[in-house]
Hints:
The protein is built from seven helices and 18 strands. It has helices spanning about 35-45, 95-105, 120-125, 155-160, 185-205, 225-230, 260-275, and strands spanning about 1-5, 20-25, 45-50, 55-60, 65-70, 75-80, 85-90, 105-110, 130, 135, 140-145, 150-155, 175-185, 210-215, 235-240, 240-245, 250-255, 285-289. The strands form five sheets. Strands 6, 7, 8, 11, 12 and 13 form a six-stranded antiparallel sheet that branches. A four-stranded mixed sheet has the order 1-2-5-3, covered by helices on one side. Strands 14-17-16-15 form a four-stranded antiparallel sheet. Strand 16 (about 240-245) and strand 17 (about 250-255) form a beta hairpin. Uridine-diphosphate-2(N-acetylglucosaminyl) butyric acid binds near residues 214, 217, 225 and 284.
Amino acid sequence: MREFAEPLLSEHTTIRLGGPALAKIVIEKVEDLEELQGRLAYWGGQPFWLGKGSNLLAHDGFLPHVLVQMGNCGISIVGIENGKTIVRAEAGAPLARLLNFCLKNGLSGLEGLAGIPGSVGGAAAMNAGSFGSETTAHIHSAILWSAAGAKRYGRDEISGSYRKTRFGNDDAGIITEIFFALTPLPNNVIFTRMCHNFFAKKSRQPLTAWSAGCAFKNPPGISAGLLLDQAGFKGKELGGMAFSRKHANFLVNTGGGSSSAACDLLALAREKVRAATGHELELEIRILK
Length: 289
Ligand code: EPU
């Protein structure tokens, strides 16, 4: 376990915003979890389960939280079940590393996730998805640590729905390991699918900008990006924050942005879209304050 005082959220989020938290605890091995309750009590703040900060908007001022991050990132094949290969990924592993592992080992299922940033644990907790593919659809089981101890959940108990699982709320605890059930396929087929999805994503989304991915969830049957675009928010700037010119649902920090400007712009967009279309946009990005 490693511990740091006053980590800056602006250095732990892909949108590069946010003030200092109380502390950060990095869990390096499963045994570290035995000490976690005691260390949280020592630092004295609310725990916040942090992945790689790619879906997170943290407020500018002091944040009374202890960030807990999984630092372990092993990936291995652990068995075969009903013709599927079971892959175990530690929650801190970057999603890109898991996809690379799948490519090398000829394992299909997660190709649609190519180009999504973040950790495997974060992707599992929020059911990250793209191009008709969702993370939880390929999960066999996952282990969650909470104050009550570690517990393994089967795929059905994880309750994956659009950008949501039972693990995605602040009280749930932290995912430590995820087991995926994947289908053997030739490497070149997987490579072609991953490339196709990655370049489709890159052509439509500002992948290298400082952003937290899509700001709002899509309302049923319609794209939030389309609604924002039609309401005039594509490229709209406020206080160093802007909705991307490439895709209107990506809120980007153009360099001198702040979380308060981000929240103002998000509120303005929701209000305008509601007034123009009646659609109530729900945030996809998590807010930490
Ligand atoms: N559109 C516009 N203007 C825009 C953006 C989109 O008119 O500025 C239109 C497009 O032309 C298209 C439609 O809206 O007709 C849908 O756009 P797109 O294919 O880009 O998909 P999306 O619904 O905006 C969703 C996910 C993305 C995911 C893509 C690809 C959400 C909120 N967004 O975007 O996920 O990568 O599909 O599958 O579910 C994320 O969740 O962070 C995310 C980026």
